[in-house]
Design a protein that fits this description.
Layout (H helix, E strand, L loop, with lengths): L4 H8 L10 H10 L9 E5 L7 H6 L3 E6 L2 H10 L7 E3 L12 E7 L7 H14 E13 L10 E2 L5 E3 L12 E2 L3 H8 L3 E13 L5 E13 L1
Parallel strand pairs: 1-2, 1-4, 2-3, 4-5
Antiparallel strand pairs: 5-10, 6-7, 7-8, 9-10
Length: about 220
Amino acid sequence: MSFSTEWEQQYSKNAHMSIWPWSDLVSLVMRHVYRKNEKPLRVLELGCGAGANIPFFLAIGAEYYAIEGSSTIVEMLKSKYEPNRNQIVCGDFTKEIPFNGHFDVVVDRSSLTHNTTAAIERCLSNVHSRLKSQGKYIGIDWFSTEHPMAIQGEKAEDNFTRTGFKSGGMAGVGRVHFSNEAHLKELFSKQFDFMILEHKLVQRSIPDPGTSFGGWNFVAVKK
């Protein structure tokens, strides 16, 4: 599959325009990847969206690259980050990584999880081939089967992928993948070892008490 046209439509309408670095990603990078006074990290972000994490990576001196499927967002980011314009490209990260060389770390915040199982497996294989020895993959907010939206919408190509959400934050974004622990381990175990695997449930009290989010954060190391 290719990048969903639904996300291009969302960004064209200025929806999902998060601009602040995601705190969970910052925390895992600083705890498990970044080392001050060492050679700058070579970082690849899959699905950078509106560029929320770019200022963080530039601030720590990283050599930053990104693949994003929305041409609208990519053109905006090329203008905003002119010195890095050739390192931010429009493409389908489930099919190819259009940069030369290898990376210290590949990150995605809730990007690859908007794909089918087959597309995720293909992307992870490509990522594995482009990571340096002991390179790390950091995933943030991969949706959990305990997310309240995991029973909404309709089944897509496989048992973990759903689509057709009519309301809420997932309406109009196409496919969404929901993982349990066993499924995540199956996806990664052939090529990666989990260094960190955390399940996050957010319980809302006001308004409408109940579970409002379920997701996985992890750091996986290339075998």
